[in-house]
Amino acid sequence: MKILLTNAPLQYHHRQAFVFRDWGTYNLALLATLAGKDHQVKILDNWHYILKSHAIFETIADFKPDLVGINHNAEVDSEHVMAIAKEIKRRWPHIIMITGGQSATVHAEEMLDNGFDCVVRGEAEVTFPELLKAIEGGRRDWSAIKGLIYKDGPQVCKTDERPMLTDLSVSPFPDIKYMPKHDSWYWPGEKSSVIETSRGCPFICDFCMVTSYWKRSYRKRPNKEIIDYLGRLVHDHGTRHLYFIDDSFGLRANEYMELCQMIVDAKLKLKWFSNGFRA
Known about the structure:
Blueprint: E1 2-7, H1 26-35, E2 40-44, H2 54-63, E3 67-71, H3 78-91, E4 96-100, H4 102-106, H5 108-112, E5 118-120, H6 127-136, E6 148-152, E7 155-158, E8 182-183, E9 191-195, E10 198-200, H7 209-213, E11 218-220, H8 223-235, E12 239-244, H9 253-265, E13 271-274
């Protein structure tokens, strides 16, 4: 099956994303890895097509995918994502449209009314491969797959909630070949990339979607896994500038101090900064 994975084009309202646009690409690389080797997967990172939607339509016309998945995390993107999905469905009604991410989960039924066939709710590590297997087998009854909301004709069907992963080690790091590799905005001539080392946040800030989405949970990968993948990014991918996209980087201060020392000891020449640093 031919699968196109993409996201909404970068908008002015993304603010910090303009200084590190690779943030939105990590999820696409992870989904491509989860799809496995049995599918032909193409990634279109629209965060590098600032304010332009036409790249999506041009890529679909050229690649001719059977399925299009749009990662949707930013609330401010909702109208844009739905408009793109509706236009794709209008031009290519046979394409199966899937979305997922924080905002897609929160507004799942609205997504279904605007071009999407299915919404993956919550984490995709188990749900996405199961859904692909069902689609490839010709099954449109997805009721046995946890973590979905979809339409069966006019009826909205919501399956059982998928439990969150208790151990992030179950989630693979993205295959290096799918990882972003762009020129750094801060250090010209050096290549940038991203990594996720933890998920969630135990605090209850009322302005933040992370609290409700992850239900105040916090999970972190072991430092050994992190340093091994950092080594691959540096030595096999040419990464010199790295962005940690964690929701609450540094929450377990001692573990992150140990990780910093491991980076020094491994002589990994990295310049890095983080998202969601808890003061």
